[in-house]
Amino acid sequence: MNFDPHYFPSPSRRMLTYGQRGMVATSQPLAAQAGVDMLKRGGNAVDAAIATAAALTVVEPTSNGIGGDAFAIVWINGELHGLNASGPAPRGISVEAVKALGHDEMPAHGLVPVTVPGAPAAWAALSERFGKLPFAELLAPAIEFATQGYAVTPVASQLWQAAVKRYGQYTGEEFAPWFAHFAPAGRAPAPGEAWRSPEMATTLQAIAATRGRDFYEGELADRLDAFSRQHGGFLRRDDLAAYQPEWVTPISTRYRGHDIWEIPPNGSGLIALQALGMLEALGDEPRDPVERLHRRIEATKLAYVDGLHYITEGDAMQASVAQLLAADYLERRAAQIGPQALEPVHGNPLSGGTVYLATADGDGNMVSFIQSNYEGFGSGMVVPGTGISLQNRGWSFSLAPDHANVLAAGKRSYHTIIPGFITRDDRAVGPFGVMGGYMQPQGHVQVVASMLEDRLNPQAALDLPRWKWTGGRTVEVEPEFPDPLAQALSRRGHRIVKCHDGLTFGRGQIILRHPDTGVLYGGTEPRTDGAVLPW
């Protein structure tokens, strides 16, 4: 990537941030500060990522937690590594067992959709393989925030209020610990109001002292097991004890002279790669902004319906990653893109609530890391006395026996959270990510295309008004989306809907490195409380 200043000419709501010795970008300033502190203590980008991730469970509990999942792409010593720390369904669950509880589809909340949490294991695995600082030191900022408290940020407060309303519809006693911990006064904390959690501090101390094993094999595991048994859940201590995160080889596609990398399924990064691969197959983009955007929307739609049809646990997929990214298949899919909006259907290649963070250090190491409880706080389940909010990732499973993502014991579900990374000529360009459920692959396509095709800087790429395909020919757009462009897309058959909830369009961060000088260029979202802190 050419980092000449003229390469990034677009005006931006925020100025691009520059750094030299390191950088951390994430959705909460205190968490970013925790990561930079590790760099200043002699840690590397991996140490910074772990400290930031742990801090985010405390200072942004509205989008992730100790009981969530994580994925990471790590560039270190000139090589790229992937970590899948999503957890499987409990061994005792089945479609029949869920239906016997009266469910026709996987419920969103409660203990049924809780799968094995992977986040603590991710922190420990990253530290053991690549970290420089003691593991306990990395969790110290998170423990301090939980013990001493912090002022709640505006977006977090907004999401907190929504969670109080969401879980307030339930009368089951299993939801009482969530309210006791996160809303003891019966409401969410207001912006600027102090919040603290001695229970989370104690839990994080146990994780720090045991490199995460207490969560999976010790007292914390016993508490998770007991709470699940008490309220009819399926998660057991044996499920926790058997869990190990998986080191994986990232997958990629070629786009505009760069290699774009994602975690392989069960993650949904394959969708972004397919869409970018289709755009690459179409060749140079036209100068007409309407045609350009129309192509990107159509490619994303075609990739998404493929992803929703095929993506699940890797060995359970009905089509392989290689088949879905094959050049001839992407060319056939791209050929379906015409002047009018499609009603997309999946192809057949066989015939031919989340937080993101990016870190970088002065030695060239970089990390793309994402962590989530799935929907906001997740399942609405908090293990009493621990501050552990459990994710609801099992909500993604289907109960239909012929669906690729059908629920099965020990199976990992389709996963929305995806970290991204860009390289060129076997050199790191940098990490990027856009959190936000099913918006994430769409956000990846939009920011990558904006940087590599439209030649915008990272901050400008994040600032652009976004669009979001929601099904059929319907595309939601942000209020700032230009009306003439929306009207032109409507004439092409798209159903354009202005959406005033900006939080549904994702929240991302980007760090890129100049290939010659090593200077870092960072951007963070205007849609969140984020910060990009240089060193």
From TrEMBL:
It comes from the Bacteria. SUPFAM superfamilies: N-terminal nucleophile aminohydrolases (Ntn hydrolases). Transmembrane segments: none annotated. This is Gamma-glutamyltransferase family protein. It comes from Billgrantia campisalis.
